[in-house]
Amino acid sequence: MSRVLTIVLMLVVLAFGFFLGSRLTGKREIRVDQQKKMAEAYALMRDLYVDKVDGDSLAGAGIQGMAEYLDPHTVYLEPEKVSYVQAEFDGNFDGIGIEFDVISDTLLVVTPLSGGPSASAGIAPGDRILSIDSASAIGITHQDVLRKLRGKRGTQVRLKVFRPLSGKLLDVTVTRGKISTASVEASFMLDNGVGYIRLSRFIATTAEEFRKALAPLKRQGMRRLVLDLRGNPGGFLEQAVAVADEFLGKGELIVYTKSRKGGSDDERYVAKSGDGYETGELVVLVDKGSASASEILAGALQDNKRAVIVGEQSFGKGLVQRQLQFSDGSALRLTVSRYYTPSGRQIQRIYHKGVAGRESYIQDSQTNIRPEKLFTDPDSLLYLKNSDVSVYRTGFLPARLQLLKRTVSKKQAPLAALRDAGGIIPDFWVSPVRYSDFFQDLLRTGSFDDMALKILDDPHSAVQRYRDSEEHFISGYGGESGFEALVMKTCSTRKIAFSSAGFASDRKLLERALKARIAHQLFGSVGQIKYMVRGADPVVRVAVTVPVSRH
User: Under a CB-based contact definition with an 8 Å cutoff, are residues 424 and 303 in contact?
Assistant: First the structure.
């Protein structure tokens, strides 16, 4: 599309923006000359453009262009995307009920969901789905898997399945049903009275799920809870507030929002209940993937001195969106306000408008910030250092007065700079050791999944004695005798240069990563989380030992 047409298109669809504004305010604010100009420009493109123009597509593209001009979190959603996202946030959808991976162009069944249609039809962990309704599934994408396997309840899907250990090809017909999704990925007790709960997102059922997960841990004598929000992209603000309410006393401020107009459009959320987990020790884990509602929860607990935050600086999303529906089923998710933590922190990190600004914003979110390069005197903040991590104690006033070299100028007050830096700054900032290029090449190419499949498909592998018991696997499986040869063969297949030095220095890390993927393929995400948390995860090892007093 030419630059001129793009500009004209943007002008046309500005009309939608004015229309949207009228929906939000209840007033019609579009000037007559603006309406006329937009209508004329639209008609010119529709009637005179060199190729035939579909009016709906033109409008959708224009709204998307307008959204991209604003902040990075204002987005236009096509009808199909709206339906998919809504089902995810509602906590249920219609489908066949499997947890899956796409590994080396192969659709792998990680596990059929308990009680779901696939389990009832005999689908087993480790099955490969070769075709869906007679169409090949080789090379299928994650999005296409969702599109093909989800569908109206009661309809059927025909699968061609290969079962490696038996070598059999199976034809399986599965009747789609209602599938409940969960935001509590795992909850269990560790040693010494420490409980663990992992929240993957904030959907309509999160608060209820969390209360159900919390109750048995309390009955088992939990004295410290590790709440894992790493990689949690957020979701419903109200659900984050409800979870925070379980930890805070009545009347304590959780979060407040400010819109452009203020007044009744602004909201303040305070704790109401008093029957959750208000007195036990609490440690919250965050990383650069913890965003939005996760940051609301972490910020509320940090500001109220209720929890110690451990991990990395969080994503830095402090904008609140409202989803506004169009008549064709599409929607605009529009930023309508900013949220602030109880102490007044506005944690949204800096962004620039436009497509280029959006792209740089995404790239910045993938950058690892290392605290040892961040503070003026990192050695004075060092709390712990071992072969896995360096931990810096940043959550106290003296540390905060030695703030970022790159954000604090001579004219800025340090605490004001911290408030504007974006994201949640952890009290104990965990900086993992740098992985070798060799390890990163194996990780980036999905090689650990390939090796895990080969081990699980080998009837003579050591893992076969452990595949029926999650606990037995975690405590007893020690790996394969031919591990180095397997890595070398995988490198040859993947065209990765095998590094003897990298293998020797990273062997423990390589074995840990492979065992985690085997756990995932045998027992699903819960199995992998249990294996990692019970000893292999260095951040959790920090979380169970750090002091929780912030004074």
Answer: no
Pairing of the two strands 281-286 and 224-228: parallel
Catalytic residue positions, numbered = 292, 303, 317
What does the pLDDT look like over 493-534, one tens digit per residue? 989 999 898 899 889 989 999 999 899 888 888 888 999 998
State pLDDT tens for residues 126-167. Answer: 789 999 999 999 999 887 888 898 888 888 899 999 988 778
- The residue from 164, 180, 196 where one domain ends is 180
74 lies in a domain?
no
The answer to whether the beta carbons of residues 190 and 544 sit under 8 Å apart is yes
pLDDT band at 417 (very low <50, low <70, confident <90, very high): very low
Has residue 522 been placed in a domain? Answer: yes
What is the rounded CA–CA span in Å between residue 402 and residue 497?
Answer: 43
Looking at the fold, whether 277 and 301 belong to one and the same domain comes out as yes
Specify whether 45 is located in the same domain as 99. Answer: no
What digits encode the pLDDT tens for the residues 308-329?
999 998 988 999 888 888 888 8
Q: Which domain holds residue 496?
A: 437-540
Residues 247 and 349 in one domain: yes
Instruction: To the nearest 10°, report the CA torsion of 60, 62, 67, 70.
Output: 180
> 292-319 in b/e burial notation, b at 16+ Cβ within 10 A?
bbbbbbbbbbbbbebbbbbbbbbbbbbb
Looking at the structure, do residues 341 and 197 belong to the same domain, yes or no? yes
- How far apart are the C-alpha atoms of 417 and 408, rounded to whole Å? 6
Spatial CB neighbours of 220, under 8 Å, sequence gap ≥ 6: 189, 195
- Residue 412: predicted pLDDT: 43
Q: In this structure, are 420 and 452 located in the same domain?
A: no
Count how many domains the chain has: 4
Please state, in angstroms and rounded to a whole number, the distance separating the CA atoms of residues 26 and 299: 34
Give me the sign of the Cα torsion angle 353, 354, 356, 360: positive
Are 273 and 419 members of one domain?
Answer: yes
Looking at the structure, tell me whether residues 300 and 206 fall in a common domain.
Answer: yes
